[in-house]
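Quick sanity check, DUF1192 domain-containing protein:
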Amino acid sequence: MDLDDILGPRPDDPLTALIAQDLDRLSVAELEARVKALEAEIARTRRKIDGAVTHRASADALFRR
């Protein structure tokens, strides 16, 4: 069992704070900048996933899993 299952999500989790942020107070320009930043973070996260999958495949091939 994971600690998150027992304790729940961390209250200081940045993703939780991001999702909870009130967007009503932001201008169109600020919202567009936010979308651009989030798209860049999505791309960075996908690159990390691709790297992890490649690393795992290399390890599996090496050890003939």
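Posting the structure with no commentary besides this: DSSP finds three helices and no strands in the chain.
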